[in-house]
RNA sequence: GGACUCAUAGCUCAGCUGGUUAGAGCGUUCGAUUCACAUUCGAGAGGUCACAGGUUCGAAUCCUGUUGGGUCCACCA
């Protein structure tokens, strides 16, 4: 027996070497897997590329564990298992992280040259990418590093830009002028999924407005008002519709149209609505419908401009206070009420979103206008793929959530006013509204008016590139991998990406490749602290997975993350729990030691003479194997892990080993061999079944089992 | 306002398509331990499965409602 077993299992002493052994074997790459009679063909998972802007957190640890379990299981079952790792430049996310760093250093991106800023963030990202990769390896990930991709690889950027141009030609991308979600801190627009509604207490001001009283929370926007809207069915006001009124404000007088629109709620406020097209999404829509002009009165920094007269230069909050005070003096405030409502905020900095009128590139999602194929919009195409079962969700309820979102989604703003991203390859005219893709930099003058053109300085929303990730990593459209491994089998990701990422991938997959990008979506929940509270830096309850690995080993951490964690639900990460699975690892170690001690020099090729009890025990093993197989096939990973844990410890170690001790010491050689045979058989099978869950210790043990010299468990048959 | 989800032992949670005395880990109580393992072993205490109805021979499990958490979505200014 190897003297390794003379002391407790110390994960630290083995894991690095084992990972190296796996890497050197080449088996992470399915093209190198040994031939098998029961070859089941390709099985593919694309790793959600971690943001290359920091270290791994507990959520990463969970998804790596889940995906690795699935990959290892499939590989052992005879699939050509491919798991492609990657790294995401994570546009806005990373820029936000980097801006915080700049802030600490007393610097600001707004005082930097864009190229200089880009280069700095690139250096920062490449450094963090390395940490991230090392940490993914420490988790035991059996992914194919030879296929690793980064979202800013040159060829990937080119393909992403090509998609943009193609969509433009198909009428699925357009340049539109409308109010967009503007973060005044980060100085960029955001898509609707990048804002977060927050409940806020505000005042609702009732302002005398000509013959009306209008209710508003934003009196500082009155200088951008162009109309008053009322419901055509409102008997109080309908006689005014179509007329022009004059209203007073602290800067003088405003001439406003009175329009009638069904969208105005008769019950709310006074039933009369002031219309500010440039600074409110609804008002913008009204203005489009009724042909009203836009008056911009607030600038990109959230300050009032010259159109606001004496309030010019003031910030929104300050201007609001002053305007109200002045209106009060003029006797134009009828009343002020407390008002609780939801306001959209930047999901990164919680700054209130300022609707801002800005031309941007949009992806046409729903059906008016352009269509993707067969007259279907992108959203309809994606909804159909889920509706008819080409894509399944685990757990199933995400299906409904997905469909609801798809049926209600709005056009997707893909322009970002940040440097960290893939440049939008487009030319914009300085004189007119001409805007078009220009991949080869061929447009030097405006084809519409002959005016000067400039390069679009914006970059793509990061989800525009990561939405194409399954295609990009598999070398769509001509690569060998694309033909072999697309569509992929499973997309495993956090439930927070149900809108940001999953729909985009479905859309691009269907639009570009005419086929769903994956068949199953497995969604995991959040990893919370031991008390079930969300981890956050400010609360100081963040658990670093690498610390836990250092303390208890990767295998223990993996078990702790999996057991008791059902798909879609949040899980609590408790150090004591991990400690328990560290003890389990040692239990496996000790049981192995015992079996090996009693197997010295035994030839296991002989047929044993089994007792009835032996047969019963082996039958029990067969049932466990059958059950585990079924559970893993159905992604019931938590059940498989818990059942194997229980079987190994409380059935195999506590009962079977104990009841065989006498036979091993006995004089009856035939009976002794039967016992040795049974114990070896159970140990060997258990180690195999445990491998996807606890890859390191099982690999180490497997090589030490009789007759296994030089074998690699990772590619053994299930 | 809408959708989704959860409510099971002191704590964290399993319990798949309904089927004999409801499970795990941790914690707790009592005991053991030179014999693979104190990162151990044995024994025990502890739950009217949120509440109220219903379906069924039978429900923690399915249906309806109520209460209380959580998450997400939504332009009522």
From TrEMBL:
<feature type="domain" description="Methionyl/Valyl/Leucyl/Isoleucyl-tRNA synthetase anticodon-binding">
    <location>
        <begin position="614"/>
        <end position="718"/>
    </location>
</feature>
<keyword id="KW-0963">Cytoplasm</keyword>
<keyword id="KW-0030">Aminoacyl-tRNA synthetase</keyword>
<dbReference type="GO" id="GO:0006438">
    <property type="term" value="P:valyl-tRNA aminoacylation"/>
</dbReference>
<dbReference type="GO" id="GO:0002161">
    <property type="term" value="F:aminoacyl-tRNA deacylase activity"/>
</dbReference>
<dbReference type="InterPro" id="IPR002303">
    <property type="entry name" value="Valyl-tRNA_ligase"/>
</dbReference>
<dbReference type="InterPro" id="IPR002300">
    <property type="entry name" value="aa-tRNA-synth_Ia"/>
</dbReference>
<keyword id="KW-0067">ATP-binding</keyword>
<comment type="similarity">
    <text>Belongs to the class-I aminoacyl-tRNA synthetase family.</text>
</comment>
<dbReference type="InterPro" id="IPR009008">
    <property type="entry name" value="Val/Leu/Ile-tRNA-synth_edit"/>
</dbReference>
<keyword id="KW-0648">Protein biosynthesis</keyword>
<dbReference type="GO" id="GO:0005524">
    <property type="term" value="F:ATP binding"/>
</dbReference>
<dbReference type="GO" id="GO:0005829">
    <property type="term" value="C:cytosol"/>
</dbReference>
<keyword id="KW-0547">Nucleotide-binding</keyword>
<dbReference type="InterPro" id="IPR033705">
    <property type="entry name" value="Anticodon_Ia_Val"/>
</dbReference>
<keyword id="KW-0436">Ligase</keyword>
<dbReference type="Pfam" id="PF00133">
    <property type="entry name" value="tRNA-synt_1"/>
</dbReference>
<dbReference type="Pfam" id="PF08264">
    <property type="entry name" value="Anticodon_1"/>
</dbReference>
<dbReference type="InterPro" id="IPR014729">
    <property type="entry name" value="Rossmann-like_a/b/a_fold"/>
</dbReference>
<protein>
    <recommendedName>
        <fullName>Valine--tRNA ligase</fullName>
        <ecNumber>6.1.1.9</ecNumber>
    </recommendedName>
</protein>
<dbReference type="InterPro" id="IPR009080">
    <property type="entry name" value="tRNAsynth_Ia_anticodon-bd"/>
</dbReference>
<dbReference type="InterPro" id="IPR013155">
    <property type="entry name" value="M/V/L/I-tRNA-synth_anticd-bd"/>
</dbReference>
<feature type="domain" description="Aminoacyl-tRNA synthetase class Ia">
    <location>
        <begin position="18"/>
        <end position="572"/>
    </location>
</feature>
<dbReference type="GO" id="GO:0004832">
    <property type="term" value="F:valine-tRNA ligase activity"/>
</dbReference>
<dbReference type="InterPro" id="IPR001412">
    <property type="entry name" value="aa-tRNA-synth_I_CS"/>
</dbReference>
